[in-house]
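Journal club prep — side note

Before the paper discussion, L.F. wants everyone to see what a predicted structure for a comparable chain looks like in token form. Sequence:
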Amino acid sequence: MAEIGWRTLVIQSKSKLNCINGNLIICQGEQKISVPLPQIKIILLEHPAIEFSSGLIAQLSEKNIKIIFCDKKHNPCAEMTAYMEHTLTAGNLIQQAEWKKIEKDKLWQMIVSNKVKNQQYILKKYHLVNASAVLALLKSLKPGDESNIEATAAKLYFSALFGSSFVRRTENDINAALNYGYSIIRSQTNRCVTMHGYHTAIGIHHHNETNPFNLTCDMMEPFRPFVDEYVYQHQKEEFNQNYRKSLISLSTMEILYNGKHTQLQTAIDLYVLDCIKYMNKEAHTIGKVEFP
């Protein structure tokens, strides 16, 4: 299995990338920057004039380093996911395809519960409305969430954060920031899922045929509120380059996982593995993602 890096590199100007002696070399005019490949977790490409070879892509794939491409508005629009190099990939995919609905429903119940509790934490922390109402919804949460507690909580939650007229699909700086932050978390989750030899498209709740990241969308849910809080704190700011950098840096923020302090990106790795173990009946529960 590839080594697990920890650095997210953001390249925002015209560059040429290559690899020499196990190091990523970033050439920008006369300047050359060298970064050891084992340190890199994600490379985010924000400029349209960034050159690299197929040979470099192959080397990054071998290290399970994800490349994220951005559109002209600097929003992540695509990512490179390596063919899963885990030695047990075939067996894991067979196992994943045979995951039982009863376990899927129970896992989704735990995921939604964790997410809603984190949403309620934010509302309570900032003395916003609907904190009690959001928490009360969990009394009706059942395996599979057939009554869609998650969506009901989200409606109350976002209206409290950004106003009763706020709509998630509207084009504005708040939604752009939320989408950007979520994309970074999604990419980190994708990386971890594939690193363990599983497929991101086969979800436990999300099952959209056009979504290649159904499982990722399931597992990233409890981490969304960390993006939400930052955007709430900076909702009056313009969504610019500095804002994007700050959202990327959230991956190194300190959170709690199972009561222990750790970085958010490390918690994602641990959480994905816990969910996989639960679905494979190797564990009876999963860890808790919480604010410190």
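L.F.'s comment for the group: The radius of gyration is 19 Å. Keep this in mind when we get to the figures.
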